[in-house]
Fold this sequence. Notes:
globular, 183 residues, single chain
Amino acid sequence: MDHSLHPAVESFGYFAAFMTGILGSGHCLGMCGSLVCGYFIRARAAGSGRLNIAPYLAYHGARITVYAMVGLIAAALGAVLVSTGQIGLAQGVLQIVAGLVVILLGLELLGLSPLKLTVGFAPARWLRQQFAGAAQKGALRGAGIAGLVNGLMPCSMTMAMAVKATTAPSVAEGGLLLLAFGA
């Protein structure tokens, strides 16, 4: 079998991840745009009020770094599952759990759920608190904290790319895949 196309296939994966990030920017604007704008409005009010590009670079650099770390972890997890032969079992369990969650959410929307899903997700609450307090930490430090927190926020697009990273040929390539997505 000719493996000369392997680099082209890899670059297509990075290009596809990059384009997913570009084409999904409307989703990001709708879901996180108000958080980001609110943070920078609050930070500017707390600071000197003059425009400085460094906090924006710190914010997005921290966010993209988190995405790359998620990619590295996902690729490592994928490698472990493949090496142990448990990938099929893990996929099956995740599909069943995801199906049950979707059914429960649907029943909740219809008002027919036997369980009340009113308990907030504790890590998301903590992330919101960290994000809200980041503006008081200083321009660069606060922007970095806010970017790290934003990168950790639950996001369907980021999670979809992390799932794709589990199939990466190496751990480094999983990190690069999410780095391309975040860029």
